[in-house]
Each structure stands twice: as structure tokens, then as C-alpha cells.
Amino acid sequence: MRPVATHSAAARPTIGSPKSWWSLRRDIIWLGDPLARLCGCLCIGPWRTARMFRMAEAQRSQPRCDECRRDLAGVRVEEQQLCDRCADKLIAAATGWPELPAPPPPEVLIGPDGERHVFRYRLFRWPGRVVAIAEEVGRGEGGHRLEIGVDHLDDAGSLAERIRAAARSAAGRVQLVPDEQDRWQLDGVEVLGRLAESDNPYEAPRVVIDGSMLTWEQFGDLLSPTKGWTFHLRLGDDAKITDDARSARRMPLDEKARLLLSIEPPKWFVIATDHYPTRGDWTDQRRAENFPARQ
């Protein structure tokens, strides 16, 4: 079994909407008073009711956006904690760039090895470009984290479908396979992954392959059969879109995935709006790069 870690933003359920048993239980949770607990015990049993209250408490403990008070916060701007949408509005107001389109909705992908991947998508404007990000939730600092970007002057609307294709490619790509002794080995001579911070700031970063976090020692064990080989290391590329996407199956967003997304906040970004170029500044910079002044 592949190593899995633990570590998302859904709106608070609205009482009065069409009821399924799940939405009824969520409504009971959000009522949060003794009568709700009694009703929950009578309807779904004491143990399940207690579990629902614990999950509700986990949801309430996650930081909400200081501006809209609805979505989970994932961006720190000076003294504020904002959701992606409110942070983008702040950037647009400060720089003159248009607001970005909404990201694709979350989805569940099943890889050819049966592994389940829950992805949250984000669209964000960095000082140097606009990026679409796919974050796998439920696996802590492990899991897939994919990024595809375009220039500020390019069409950001193209990013939505490209990042979904990249997520499907990652979920459909299996690079770690067991050998005869059930130890992991690389399936091929090319490997795609990323570097992640260790829990210990004094340790080297971890290596993440197929969404699984490895130590440098474990990564070295994977490479040991290739001793004496040459290699080419390239860092910082956008996520690849490959034919592996055909091997990933898309599943409807179920209760388990919704719960993960509601209790796990997005990965935090820290920004300063004065680091962003205005639209005019960026246009002038690009024009100077394309048509350098003659000496």
C-alpha cells in the first residue's frame, strides 16, 4: 500500500434546502444545541451524532475569509486572511488587472492503480504570471500539487481545462511499482515529481512522486539500480499533460470528498500587493523585451 499522509473550502450548509439524510444530519450539526443533539440521537444514533458534531467542530475551527466570511481563507495579505476570490479582487483593485475567472469545481479522480485523488483547483495571479493550481487534499504535505501558468496578457480562461488535464495526467500516471519483494521501484527511466518542505526546517526537502512523500534515503533506494548512469535534472517546469490522462477515471464528488474539502484549508499564500506590476507597467515591460531600444 502506498504511503498516505493527512492534511480544504465548502460553504456552510443552508437549512431549508432539499433534504437527503446527509444534509439533514449536517443541519442538525449546525444547529449545535441540546435539542439538536437529542434529535440526532433519535434519528441517526448517538455515536454517529457525536461523530457529526466532531466534524462540525473541525469545520468551524478552520479560518474563514475576513472579507466574505464564507469561504476558507488561503491567502495572507498584510493583516488580512482572505479566500482566493477576495484576494483576487484586492489585487485587481490595486493593479488594474481584470478579475480572474472562477476555477474548475473540485473533482475525484481514480488512477489505474485504484488510488483515489481528491483535487481542489485554484486560479491565482502572481506578480510574474497567472497560474492554475491543482491541490490534492487529504494527504498532508504529500499528494499532487500541480501548476500551469500563462503571461498576464494571455487568456487566463484557457487555464481551467489545462489544469484539469494535468490533474488527470498525474492521477493516471503510475511511476512507483512494487518489485518481486514488494519494494518500490521506478517504472521507467523518467520520473516526474516535486520537492516539498520537511516538517523539520533543518532537514532537506522531501521528494514527492505519485503523490507519495519520500525521504532522500528512500529516493536514493529507488535510484540504486541505475548506479553509473548519467542523468539530466530540470526544475521548475509546468505540470505535464500526457496520454496518462486517459487512464484516470472521474468520479462524482461524494460525501467523503466534500468533507475533506470542507475541513482542509487550501495551502497558504502570502502576498503583498505592492509587489505586483500594474497593467501599464507590464505592457511596457513586454514591449521593451520584444522591441529592444537600438543602441
Task: Give structural notes.
This protein has 295 residues and is an alpha+beta fold. The protein has a domain at 176-234. Helix content is 32%, strand content 19%. It has eight helices and 13 strands.
Separation of the first and last Cα atoms: 63 Å
Rg value: 22 Å
Shape category: globular
Helix content: 25-40%
Rounded mean pLDDT score: 83
Strand content: 15-25%
Order of helices and strands: HHHEEHEEEEHEEEEEHEHEH
Tally the helices: 8
Largest sheet: 5 strands, antiparallel
Judged by helices, strands and strand pairing, the structural class is alpha+beta
The low-confidence parts are 1-32
Count all strands and give the number: 13
Order of strands across the main sheet: 6-5-4-3-12
